[in-house]
Amino acid sequence: MVKRTYVAATAIILASSIFSAGCGLIGKNKEKVDPPTEVSHLKEGEELDTSLETETEIEKETTGKEESSETMMTDLYLIDRNDLVVSQTLSLPKTESRAKQALEHLVAEGPVTDILPNGFRTVLPAGTEIDVDIKDGKAVVDFSEEFTKYQAKDEQKILQAVTWTLTQFESVDSVELRVNGHQLKEMPVNGTPISEDGLSRADGINNEQMDVADITNSRPLTLYYLAQAAEDYYYVPVTKRVSNTNSDDLAAVVNELIEGPVMQTALLSGLELIDDVKLLDAPKVDDGVVTLNFNEAVLGNSEENVIADEVLQSLVLSLTEQQDVESVSIMVNGKAELVKENGEALTAPVTRPEKINAGSF
Fold first, then answer.
1. Please, what sign has the CA dihedral across residues 168, 328, 251, 89?
2. No. of H helices and E strands in the chain?
3. CA–CA separation, 348 vs 337, rounded Å?
4. Closest Cα partner for 307 from 334, 342, 275?
5. How far is residue 74's CA from residue 59's CA, in Å, rounded to a whole number?
6. Distance between alpha carbon 341 and the CA centroid of its chain, in Å?
7. Where does this protein have coiled-coil stretches (predicted)?
8. Which of the ends of the chain has fewer CB neighbours closer than 10 A, N or C?
9. Strand partners for 247
10. Segment 62-91, tens digit of pLDDT
11. Rounded to the nearest 5°, which phi and psi values hold at 121?
């Protein structure tokens, strides 16, 4: 049963669809949540070594589709119809400068135009030229003057999209922004300050304004909710601030997913749609695996121990944002006898998919 009524029509559609018999909302053609074989990424400016097997083999994405030997699947953080920053995994031509290429695909009227998913838009102004230099974990991005011609309402989205697009690469931990060679200490239109240490994922994404009495006594958590595009669905990262009165980040993540996002959004959490779901024990982490023990309500209306894909993937994506968590094991009443929607027994902990929203809508 649905816990509460939503104004947004898309949320209503999501709520009515999430537990439809025999059908999941996300990754309808996916057989696994587990990631494909690890792919080695080139650092900016590094020469392509054709002797490496990982560079010459055809790589497979989580969709089960094969990549061309001339392309690479890359996450681009774009703005969706709800004005949220969301990754879309698109196939881009192979290049030695993947970080620069990714940012160039965030430019309006640029190379992304013909492959831009429906309902999404780019974040950087048309005509923006970009140089990227990566050293010691920091990506220094130098924009041309056209970069300054964005709308004030997009300022935070630009910071988040650029940061999260670049930090998908193993060689990048933080980002420094420049315009015509001059470092930005604040954004040029609305004056958002930029730390001298640079931007990172610790700054959050789609930051939700929470009713936290003492913001200095709170901390950020990034959760993954569901949004709808036409007949398909995708995951949206949202950073919430939670009170430090509960110091258990893992329990806080699960509880926030149960609570769901703010009512004014068109987002939903799979757990939010289930009445009376709760953890029976505090989450436990052992060698990178977090174990969750739920009551039977987590199964919704299933009589076959089937856990909804949306519940499973929201938990996995959100919990693996936490340090030292690599996979998630789920139990019900102390027993691990669950089944995925595709009928596959859930016999092993579930790892994070390498690409979250693969394919276009």
1. positive
2. 6, 12
3. 10
4. 342
5. 12
6. 22
7. none
8. N
9. none
10. 333 445 568 999 999 999 999 999 999 999
11. -135, 160
Residues 132-159 as b/e (b if ≥16 CB within 10 A, e otherwise) read bebeeebbbbbbeebbeebeeebbbbbb
Reduce the DSSP state of residue 272 to 3 states and report it: helix
Q: What's the confidence (pLDDT) of residue 210?
A: 63
Note the pTM of the prediction, 2 decimals.
0.80
Cα dist from 268 to 18, 231, 292, whole Å? 10, 16, 21
Collapsed DSSP state (helix, strand, coil) of residue 50: coil
Comparing C-alpha atoms, which of 222, 185, 223 is closest to residue 202?
Answer: 222
CA distance 64 to 203: 33
Phi, psi at residue 106, to the nearest 5°? -100, 0
Query: Residue 317 CA to chain centroid, in angstroms?
Result: 7
Distance of alpha carbon 322 from alpha carbon 247, whole angstroms: 13
Q: How many CB atoms lie within 10 A of CB 214?
A: 9
Q: How many CB atoms lie within 10 A of CB 258?
A: 19
Nearest to 240 by CA among 225, 256, 229: 256
Torsion of CA 42, 47, 51, 55, to 10 degrees: 30
CA dihedral sign, ordered 66, 72, 75, 79:
negative
C-beta of residue 204 within 8 angstroms of C-beta of residue 220:
yes
Q: In this model, does residue 57 exceed pLDDT 50?
A: no
State the Rg of the chain over Cα: 21
The model's pLDDT over 92-110, given as tens digits with 9 standing for 90+, comes to 999 999 999 999 999 999 9
Listed in sequence order, the residues at least 6 apart from 103 whose beta carbon sits closer than 8 Å to its beta carbon are 124, 130, 132, 141, 162, 165, 166
- Which of 240, 74, 85 lies closest to 153 in space, CA to CA? 85
Beta strands in 153-201 (DSSP E): 174-179, 182-183
Q: Which residues contact 97 (CB under 8 A, 6 or more apart)?
A: 44, 45, 132
Q: Determine whether 251 is exposed, middle or buried from the number of CB atoms within 10 Å of its CB (0-12, 13-18, 19+).
A: middle
What does the buried/exposed string (b/e) look like for 270-305 if buried means 16 or more CB atoms within 10 Å of the residue's CB?
bbbbbeebebeeebeeeeebbbbbbeeebbbebeee
